[in-house]
Every structure is written in C-alpha cells, then in structure tokens.
Amino acid sequence: MESYSRRWFLGAGATTLVSAAGLTACGSGGGSGGSGGGTVTAMVYGDDAVKIQTQAIDRFNASAAAKKTKGSIKLQKIPASDYPAKLRTAMGSPNAPDVFFNWGGGSIKAYQEANQLIDLTDTIRTDSVLKDGFLPSVLASGSLGGKMYGIPMRGMQPVMVFYNKTLFAEHKLQPPTTWDQLLDINAKLKKAGITPFALGGAEIWPELMWLEYLVDRIGGPQVFEKIKNGDASGWGDPAVLKAAETVKQLIDDGAFGKGYSSVGYSNGGAPAVLAKGRAAMHLMGSWEYPTQLGKFPDFARKELGWFAFPQYEGGAGDIRNVVGNPTNYWSVNARVANKDAAIAFLRDCASEAYTKDLIANGDVPTTTIAEKMLDSSPNPEYARFQYQMVQQAPAFTLSWDQAVDPKWSRPMLTEINKLFVGKSSPAQFVSALKGLK
C-alpha cells in the first residue's frame, strides 16, 4: 500500500511547516556543534520501514565507531501521520533532535533558513564513504541552494509509466519512447474502447506527475530548478505553458476517460482501473508495484509492465531524467553536541548491511553497491529497472509539492486541479502560479 511517507506534503505537512521566522535556533542538549561525546537523538518517521533504522542503530551502538566517538544513538519513533507536526514542534524547542528524517527540498527549507542545519557539503566531499556511497542524482536532490543537507537513508521512489501487458499484446502495442508514439497508442486504444491512462484525479498529486514530467521533457530540469529556488517568475517559462497545453490536449482527447476526477488512488481506485483492464497505462510512483501486488497479486506478477516517460520531440529534457521522490534523508541539527558520532552513524547508510536490510524490505536502495545485490529483491527485474533508471539519470527532480516552499505547495496544487477539471485554461494556470508570493 502507498506509504504516507511518500506523499506527506498533501496531508499534515502542507500546513505544519512554518516559515523560518517561526523557528528558534534552540538545540539538543545545549550543545554547540562540538564532539565531546554523548548520546545523539535521531527522530524518525515511524512506519513499517523503521525497523531498518532500528537495526542500524543497534549496529552502530555496538560498533568501534561508537566507542571512538564516545557516542550512542537513541531513536525517537514518531507515528506516521504525526511526524511533520511533531518535528516542527521539536525543532522549535530545547529538545530538538540531533538527527532527523525528512524529504529534502521544501521540507527542510525553513530549518535551513533558521540556521538549524549543518551544511554537509564539505563533510560529504572529503569522506569517501559518503561521497562515493550513493547515486549522485540522489545525493544532489538532498541539497538546497547548491549545498548538501541530507544523507540518503531509505529506498528510491521514481515515477514511471506502468502498463497492462495483456492489453498491449492484444492490440499489438509496444512501450513508446517518444511522445508521438504515445499519442498514436492513445488513439488506437480509444478506438478499441479502452481508456489510455488511469488517473486518480480525486486526489491532486497523481495529476501533478504529468506536469512534472512534461515540464522536464519540454524545457529540461533547469526550468523547475529556478522555481524550486523561490523564483516565481520561473512559472512563466514557455515550457510550463506548453506542458499545461499538452495536459489540456490529453484531457480533451479522452486520454484519462471521463470519470477520472472521481477516481482516487489511496483507496485503490486507479490501481483497479489498470489491473481490471479498463485502462492500459498508469503514470505513478514506484510504489505502484507493491500496491498492485497487495491488491491484485496475479496481475502484478504476470501482467504488469513499466517503462520510462517518453521523450518529447523538440524538447530540451533528456529521456533519462527522472521525477519523483529520490529518497528520504537524514539531516543534522546545527546544535548537535556530538557531531562525530552523528556523522559516523550516517556513514552506516552506505554500508552493505544497511543496503541488504533495505532490499529485504522490498526497497531499492540508493547506494552505489546496491545493484549487485538486487537479485535478492522480491522482484529483481523491477528492482534493477528502477535502480538503473535512477543510476543513469542526469537529473532527478524532487516532486514539486515537496520541493517548493511549503507556502506555495497548496496554492500550486489547487491550480493544478483547476487545470485538470477544466476550471482554468493553460494561460490562466501559468498566470496564477506566476502570482505566488
């Protein structure tokens, strides 16, 4: 089932992160960034995958590194739905965690602006384990303003196109690599009475994925990079308008059918549309596979296929570029008292033991050593596809709702939904987003 950790911003996260002005620079235990020994507190999102972090802490606390740094790690598990609010409260108190789980991008922007985070750039660049231990595109996605604030600590979650192999075979279709090929497939499917794409339009984030990829393929990753860095004029880039116009053409052409705005994802609606053959394709994050495996196991094992989002002819974006959630990250509080122990603990995230634990949990790790270990994954073929997709990506753009400043997230999503339900034209969509303050 889709994890709350993957889509947090649409729930509590969209309203609980406050501006930098609302955060104090209180630290954990009154430290000042030194390394005098002592316990390091690590606050983590408490879902099923937390067992991997628990194992890592047990391993570290018994290690020579713990002895050398005179430190130990204490885990603070926060219930999933409470995490963003609890983190914000803790970071504004004297009991702030030394190390904490986050989503990168906008999820840590307020803390970075309040000088509450350690800039890890030099640490990573001078530590071969951290520098060489993770895929470059994922490490880069844990940065703000060109500085690194995160160490990858969970599996990758790229967005891709899933498809019904049986329907494709019946209609003699092949996975497209170009946008024109995709439009040709859409036309053939509609002629056969099959909706080309499932879409959980009752929730906004599945609609967001279409714009994320189209803006990348048409204008390249630099278009959203400008927006992510807080420049609302970036919404005026011609690629954004072209992407919005392309979405409208898809809708008008019936690419999503007629009832998509009443179909959900989290309740299993959109996955069922694909699995039951009512739609041939579905643009979704990598959690679509475990979702299908849980709800429609036979379909997942025998009929579910996947391919990269196609190239847009004449566009500036590389077909190898990926959008989605690169991973989750550990960041370090600037007031940590035992920085050496904290950094030593983070190094374990690049280890073989940590990588094995992630794979056993069904995740695809972002470590550079993971590829040779994926044969032990529940679905090695799918795991390798994901890994190579991210490994080869020149750019991995973080989901917009997680990358932008939190105060932009909700208005942006509202405008995306208005575009998809026909309450806004592409030009009105661009104008509204350029007006974000």
TrEMBL record:
What this protein is called in its record is ABC transporter substrate-binding protein
What keywords does the record list, in alphabetical order? Signal
PANTHER family, from UniProt? ARABINOSE-BINDING PROTEIN-RELATED (PTHR43649), BLR3389 PROTEIN (PTHR43649:SF14)
Entry superkingdom: Bacteria
PROSITE patterns assigned to the protein according to its UniProt record, in alphabetical order? PROKAR_LIPOPROTEIN
- Secretion signal: which residues? 1-20
Q: Which organism's genome codes for this protein?
A: Streptomyces kebangsaanensis
